[in-house]
Amino acid sequence: MPQTLSRAVTRSTASEVRRHALAGGQSSYAPCHIFPSADGAFFLAVSNDYQFAELSALAGQPQWAADPRFASQRARCRHHEELVALLRRHTVAHLTEEWLAALRWVGVPCVALAPCQPGG
Questions:
Q1: What is the CATH number of the domain that holds 23?
Q2: Which residue from 30, 90, 93, 103 has the least number of CB within 10 angstroms?
């Protein structure tokens, strides 16, 4: 995916997620969370089964896409906390930039988060 298109997808999806959160409704993205990496953190928002299958493969867990708890967007929303906990165990194995490059390559909207500064 060209980098400019990737940025447009990320901006569009991030604003959509923000609109859902501000409206107080449940987001239709799952997983949609901040994840730790080996050197920081990043945010991702999965909006369909293809993106989830790609994320699962990148995490080294392709079987998650067939797991009844995660096989559909609705199921992932119901089991969001469990899914986030599982993913966090795998996201810490790689650097943020490695995750971003891989996620963007397969079309999963994501963004790096700046580390918190002491006293800030």
A1: 3.30.1540.10
A2: 93
Tokens 């002491």, residue? 118
For the four alpha carbons of 107, 46, 76 and 82, in that order, the dihedral sign comes to positive
Q: How many domains does the chain have?
A: 1
Q: Which of 85, 99, 53 is nearest to 113 (CA)?
A: 99
Range of the domain at 44: 3-113
3-state secondary structure 1-68: CCHHHHHHHHHHHHHHHHHHHHHCCCCCCCCEEEEECCCCEEEEECCCHHHHHHHHHHCCCHHHHHCC
- Per residue in 24-73, pLDDT (tens digit) is 334 688 999 999 999 999 999 999 999 999 999 999 999 999 999 999 99
Q: Which residue has the tokens 């490059």?
A: 101
Closest by CA position to 102, among listed 56, 71, 70: 56
Q: How far is CA 21 from the centre of its chain?
A: 16
pLDDT band at residue 119 under the 50/70/90 scheme: low
